């Protein structure tokens, strides 16, 4: 079901401080195992510092506010640019450097042996169709826009700054951003987490 009562406002999710004091995280959705096999969260990064290491984990980040982050580990560099979903390895001890101040990132972490994640941003008034595998989970994040979801006769209109978690059942699902705020507004995005087997 994608009824409107399943919508959650971002400001209703409690912030959890990072151990290093460099920011806070709001968990939007997570697998119910311990340790969790996947997690989707919204992080506020306020200062330079180390990223936590996660062995066996693939990370995805989408900068939704601010100018981005540069991650460095030895000779390896990953640039997290605004509005660009980026995949990288969770095992290295990345050092993060903010680009011109604090930022917010939609972060996804998955166990590389069990799950595959995709993060896709949505363009204004351009329907995007998703056909997830059975056992998948979709997390739709409205950002600063208004997003409409349709699936098998169901319709859900998402106000700005909300998200919804949908247990997929192989039925096609269409997401459309029907209105947006300023040009530099927080983007609407869909996170698809699919089982490998």
From TrEMBL:
Family annotation (InterPro entries): RmlC-like_jellyroll (IPR014710), RmlC_Cupin_sf (IPR011051), Uncharacterised_HutD/Ves (IPR010282)
Annotated Pfam families: HutD
SUPFAM superfamilies hit by this protein: RmlC-like cupins
Name of this protein: Protein Ves
Organism listed in the record: Pandoraea horticolens
The encoding gene: ves_2
